[in-house]
Write a structure and sequence with these properties.
The chain is mainly β. Helix content is 6%, strand content 33%. The termini are far apart.
Length: 141
């Protein structure tokens, strides 16, 4: 399985995820959220930042179901999805992940036919190879 590479700028994201919180970096000067995390605001060039808690809700902005699986380690889990989720609290922020049936469910736990652009999702966290990662659950309705 692929595990995240934690760098200095992104370390707080993973620390909050380990607590079950979805947070994104925002500029403390102009207020613009940014992802991926980085030292300088691309809008106002300030180096002051804060980590804002998000509601954990969003919508599927885009998705793909790889056929054949692109990485051999994932072949047993096909067909699985990779989604780009637009956050409800910060629509310009999009996070990559997987839609699963439950936080600890396998990658192939959601039938790809259930995925739709614009479908509501909410975050859930699970441990993968010692790292707590965000995953996505479909909202009902």
């Amino acid at each position: 399985m692929l595990t995240p590479v934690v760098d200095e700028d992104g370390a707080p994201f993973w620390e909050y995820a380990a607590r079950g919180e979805l947070r994104v970096q925002a500029c403390a000067a102009c207020g613009e959220p940014r992802f991926p995390p980085r030292p300088c605001c691309p809008h106002c060039r300030s180096f002051d930042s804060e980590w804002r808690r998000m509601s954990g809700r969003g919508r599927i902005w885009s998705y793909v179901v790889p056929h054949p699986p692109l990485l051999p380690d994932y072949a047993a889990q096909a067909p699985y999805n990779a989604v780009l989720v637009e956050l409800a609290d910060a629509p310009r922020i999009r996070l990559v992940g997987n839609v699963v049936a439950a936080p600890d469910a396998p990658l192939d736990s959601v039938d790809p036919a259930r995925l739709r652009i614009g479908a509501g999702v909410r975050v859930a966290f699970t441990e993968i190879a010692g790292v707590i990662v965000p995953r996505w659950l479909l909202e009902r309705g």
